[in-house]
Amino acid sequence: MNMPFSPKVTLIRLLDREDADELARIEKFVANHRHGTAFHRPAWVLAVSKACNHEWRYILAEDTEGQLQGILPLSLIHSPLFGRALVSSGFAVGGGILSLNDQATEMLADTAWNFAQKHSFPSVELRGGPIPAGNWQNKDGVYAGFASSLADDEESQLLAIPRKQRAEVRKGLKNQLTVRTGSSEQDGTDHYAVYAESVRNLGTPVFPKKLFDAVLDGFGEHADILTVLEDGRPVASVLSLYHNETVMPYWGGGTHDARRLRANDIMYFALMNHARKRGCRRFDFGRSKVGTGAYSFKKNWGFEPQSLSYAIRAINGEEVRDVNPMSPKYRLQVALWQKLPLPIANHLGPIIARGLG
């Protein structure tokens, strides 16, 4: 006689302190899960908390034997300008529920929502992962992700780039630019100077430098900075994350001269080759909003867009916060920010940006 099937009971609890054993369990769970990302890792969650002064929580789902069945990292975002929200994960383009079964998914989502109500957060944002059942909005068609396999060698990588974009890379290769990789204090200083100028030119406030430093410290050998220089002067730079044989160039930008020198093209081509030497097999170009210049740029490299879905839930009658700088409501602010002198933008930017989450 067959025994009736009875699924394992899943238990839920909150982790709100830096318990080394618990964090090690989470790291292992993320590393072994095929949908795990750098943004699920404690290294990311703790870096965001320490650099931007936001509290954090992990919601853990376990079976009756104490084995993890799912996790949900949360950043508790507080901002006088942009409001409050529970975000998974803060300052990331990924995260969300990471689970082994539907039961764990639903229990993690329900617990996050109950936590939000108890602590007066009007919304919960899950960036990636499964969409929970019930009153969760599926926000899709707004962003797309771009990822592809790396080629076997440098020449094959160059030939894998579509013809028009490959021509831009070849032009850049003639400009006698040099490339430096590392995670030293100088690397961090050069990267922040380039990145801050880049985002000012786009009309958005720069994140605190402490965030970049905390991510580098937390990720150790799983993060580094690649900088392109002209006569020793940094003109393009990117901070990249490495996770399960995949490289993600996360915070990158270029100075005013970068376009003339094709420095950004050299930066990404050099990163592809650098990542291959590190043992990576995939290149994740990250997300871009559909219809933007960044979206077109990544398509020009031969990357096919894949629609991303985010789950959002808000209290009845409350509007979900809008922190997208491309939103029409911020058009005037973006235009004004682009005109700010760089020292002023770099002073005010981190104060504003730490509340974006």
From TrEMBL:
Pfam family, one: Acetyltransf_6
InterPro entries, per the entry: Acyl_CoA_acyltransferase, BioF2-like_GNAT_dom, FEMABX, PEP-CTERM_FemAB-rel, PG_Glycine_Bridge_Synth
Swiss-Prot/TrEMBL keywords: Acyltransferase, Cell shape, Cell wall biogenesis/degradation, Peptidoglycan synthesis, Transferase
BioF2-like acetyltransferase domain boundaries: 166-299
Family of this protein: Belongs to the FemABX family.
Record protein name field: FemAB family PEP-CTERM system-associated protein
Organism: Parasphingorhabdus cellanae
